[in-house]
Design brief:
The structure is a homodimer. By secondary structure, chain A is an alpha+beta fold. The first copy, chain A, has seven helices and five strands; from the N terminus they run ααβααβαβαβαβ. Chains A and B meet through helix 1, helix 2, strand 1, helix 3 and helix 5 of A and helix 1, helix 2, strand 1, helix 3 and helix 5 of B. Strand 1 of chain A pairs parallel with strand 5 of chain B, so a sheet runs across the interface.
Chain lengths: ~210, ~210
């Protein structure tokens, strides 16, 4: 067993910067990403993410087929229009003005799934909480997201799609559950403030809203 | 808008170390943690974690009541014995030998929930995928986990409990869904290899198992 690295004050400050500057990116440059860069970030996510029972249930599907990409974009537009119907008046106007996905510009698209029937890990930790498999896949998306940010790459997690439609489109095993569609590329801009705060949709809450005692 | 920080090669290497050395910790020192240290790590998780629609649905409940802690431990032991019944022969022996939670020693216990009916974010991004609220809470746990590791603090995410029992025990709103019980404290040891790999339960897979193309 090697000695653990020293995570000094400078690193801890920079780590907090990383968390602070990681955005859900919707505006991308169309510049291609080097393939080995994408593979590096994917590798970090796939090897080091936490998973219940070491199940590693994440499945990252790089979507390169233009027809599949077009179908996802079309579905996003349909679902986004339907979502707009949930709002009225000023809220609806604001919703309609938001850019919620960079499907057109992002050079790399990745559909992420959780293999809900993986034998890896032999079910350890899942008996009473089978949903932990999906939480592990969500954590792998977040590892990808953080690592990408450190490498200057932006990621947008698109959930405004019909999960069943995307799964069928990707021709993946039926036990794979769709987690999200990632738009990946160099961001048009960097910002330490979330888009939805900047555009007036939702402010951040105070800590008292999130931390309790029993 | 300030200039984004530079995440240089040294930081990227150290970030990869952080991912590599973050463990699910089951063996803790009983030494108390400074309250402001726990609050710092909680603050990082609550302010900076990604969330669908900026909903911030995470609810961290610090469990200080010894009776509640004892009840969780008792439930873990019951559920762990039941989980053992899923295995036979050598696998069962191995399962029985694993230490799967540090409930006895960890000085800090936190029950984490997702507020599935939060109005924050006004449902943005959730219409077709309401489960993204829980994925956001899972990611807040992971931010806590990573930040803790950078501060030399270990975290174990315990899922071998009855989620409904823990929710009832914590007397939290019924719409809060239990995500996991965190044991938090200084780890007895550091290791860059997952416990379940070290103890022969589950090896890590190769990248081909996780990355696909369409």
């Amino acid at each position: 067993m090697s000695t653990a690295p020293d995570f000094d004050e400078a690193f801890k400050d920079k780590l907090e910067d990383l968390f602070r500057w990681r955005r859900d990116v919707r505006k991308f440059k169309t510049d291609p990403l080097p393939v080995d860069l994408v593979d590096k970030i994917l590798s970090i996510a796939c090897v080091y993410s936490p998973s219940v029972g070491n199940s590693q249930p994440w499945r990252f599907v790089k979507v390169n087929d233009p027809k599949r990409r077009a179908a996802v974009k079309e579905n996003f537009e349909i679902q986004n229009r339907e979502a707009l119907d949930n709002y009225q008046g000023e809220k609806a106007k604001l919703y309609a003005s938001l850019k919620l996905a960079g499907l057109d510009q992002a050079p790399v698209h990745i559909a992420v799934f959780a293999d809900t029937q993986t034998e890896r890990g032999a079910g350890l930790g899942q008996s009473t909480m089978p949903e932990t498999l999906k939480y592990s896949a969500a954590n792998a998306i977040y590892t990808f997201w953080l690592a990408a940010r450190a490498y200057g790459v932006g990621v947008g997690w698109v959930s405004i799609v019909d999960p069943k439609m995307v799964a069928d489109l990707m021709d993946t095993p039926p036990e794979w559950e769709f987690m999200g569609y990632l738009c990946v590329g160099y961001p048009e801009e960097e910002n330490q403030t979330p888009e939805l705060v900047r555009h007036g949709w939702q402010e951040r809450g105070e800590l008292e809203a999130f931390i309790f005692e029993r």
